[in-house]
Each structure stands twice: as C-alpha cells, then as structure tokens.
Amino acid sequence: MVMAGMAKRWWLALITVTLLVGCASDPAAQFEHLPVATPRQPSLQDQVAAVRIGQFLDAADRDEAELALLFYQRGLYFSRMGLDWLAHVDFRRAVELRPDFAEAYNQLGVQFTLMGQFDDAYEALDSAIELAPNADFPLLNRGIALHYAGHHQLALSDLENYYRRDTSDPYRVIWLYLIQRELDPVAASARLGHLRPMVREGWGRILLAYFSGELSATELLRRAAEAEHDNVEGDPADRDERLCEAYFYIGQQLLAEGNSKAAANYFRLAAATNIFEFVEHNFALYELQQLAVADSGDGSGPAT
Predict the structure, then answer these.
(1) Last residue in a domain, options 75, 103, 136
(2) Does residue 76 sit within a domain?
(3) How far apart are CA 70 and CA 113, in angstroms?
(4) Residue 15's pLDDT is what?
C-alpha cells in the first residue's frame, strides 16, 4: 500500500536473516523455505528526475505556485529514495510558498507521525482534510496517527469514514480491523468476517483471509512469493511489494498475540525491502522503534 517512507539501508536484510535463522540447527535449510524480498534500490529515473527538478528550481522567474509544485514533486522523489529529511524540507517549503497545498500537508502529516510528533501531524493532516475534504489519504493518515498516539476511538471514526468511501477496498477493511481490534477484538473479528465478502478479489482479499484465520503465516508468504492470485487494480505490482505487506501484517498479528520478538523479526523483513513509499514499510520501522523503546524500559514514546 503506497505511502512515503523512512530511509533504511540494505544491510537490514542481512541482520534479519541472522536473527531469523541464527539459532537453527540447519540455518541453510530453514532459510531455503523462507521467502525473502530483494531490497529495492533507488531507480536511476527517480535520481535523474530529482536532479532535473533541482535545475528547474535554480532557474529564475518562476512564480510561487510553480515553485511550490516543484518542491513538492522533488519531495516525492526524495521520499521514494528514502531521503526523508530532504523530502521533509521540500514539503515544508511547498506549503510555505503555497499555504493551500493539501497534498503537501498530507505528506508532512505522514512524516510527523513517523517522527512521533503527533500534534504537528494532526495540524498538517487537519489542514489537508480542510483543504481537500474529498481526498481519501489524509483521512487514512490522520486515523493512523491517532491510532499510534493511542486515541483509538478517534482513529476508528476516521477509518469508518475512510472505509465508507470505498467498501470494496480490502486495505480499508484491514486498517479498520487493526484499529477496532484495539478497542474490541471480538467485535473487530466479527465485523471482519462480515465485510470481507464485499471486497474485490485479489491480493488484498488474501491478506484478509490471513487475518480471518483461514491462512497461516507460512501459507500467506507462499502465496505472496508465488503470486497465486489474480492481479487486479490496486494490487501490489510485484512479488517484493506483496512480501513487504505480508511481513508487516504478520508482524501486526504476532504483536497482537503478545509475541513481540517474532513480530520484530517480521517488521525488520518489511523494513529491509526498502519499498519506501509503502505504508507497511514506514510503520514497520515505526513499530521497531517503539519495540526498542519498550525493551529499553524507559517508558517513553507513544503507545502502539
């Protein structure tokens, strides 16, 4: 599921491999059956595009609206390459030049959430929703921000509205379930069973089958790696994108079951894909940060 992300290096994949198989009596044999994504590298096209936009920005005689759009577009390229601070600077410059730039506020809201700066995230996402009330992603992103800040009832309200705008979208059902589960796991499971038949066929429906208990984590990963589903509009484009999502949602399930160590390994796998524009990649990193805080015993940081 696409969204701007936070940067991590390819070496996370090596760390994850070590953690997952280091204790096995036959690590090679165990690893052979674990589908692992190839860490994505920034494309040459994105790098060239970012450089060209920089050249346009250096040119004189551009009005503020044009400059704002250029900063925003370069920020998107930086995000896709995992250059989050550079993206953040460009998005902030975009809204300074054009205070009605809803898309830029949305991106800032996501970044503030990932930084744990929730008040700033709410302000940015409130602005995005006010400026573009029919846009879907600011509503999702505000719901996620509220969720990670521990305001689950408010988050559920946003996700209810987000879901009603497209009841066939499996990802809307997934996030509605994840947030409602924090309030009432039994009701969330019952509702998941009711909503699942209404979503469109494809990979997202397979993810819902996992949350419903009809697929094991092993089977979900096999289906992701072998692409045994009909590719429809809205599905991830390739095997590694599906694996990124599968790792994250398996981690979420393990976390809900109280198995934080195993969950952390799957979050590391999701982070190691380097698919920076995916919400699952971004919040895998966030979950790892929060698990590290919990392990440190200092009690600081937002609840997950």
Answers:
(1) 136
(2) yes
(3) 24
(4) 45
Spatial contact of 9 and 272, defined as CB atoms under 8 Å apart: no
34 three-class SS: coil
**Cβ atoms 3, 106 nearer than 8 A:** no
What are the percentages of helix, strand and coil residues in the chain, rounded to 5? 70, 0, 30
Residue 278 phi, psi (nearest 5): -90, 135
Copy the structure tokens of residue 175: 């996030």
Of 166, 144, 169, whose CA–CA distance to 155 is shortest?
Answer: 144
- 16 and 54 in a single domain? The answer is no
pLDDT value of position 105: 98
- Which one-letter DSSP state was computed for residue 286? H
Closest CA to 272 of 286, 255, 257, 285: 285
CA neighbor of 66 nearest in space, from 76, 57, 74, 75: 57
How many residues comprise the chain?
A: 304
Characterise 183 by phi-psi region: left (phi > 0), alpha (psi -120 to 50), beta (else).
alpha
Q: 43-52, 100-109, 233-242: lowest mean pLDDT where?
A: 233-242
Who contacts 181 (Cβ-Cβ below 8 Å, separation ≥6)? 188, 189, 256
3-class state of residue 278 by DSSP:
strand
Q: Is the pLDDT of residue 18 over 60?
A: no
Last residue of a domain, one of 79, 110, 136: 136
Phi then psi for residue 41, to 5 deg, are: -105, 150
Query: Residue 123 belongs to a domain with what CATH number?
Result: 1.25.40.10
What's this model's pTM, rounded to 2 decimal places? 0.86
Can you give the residue range of the structural domain that contains 16? 1-34+236-292
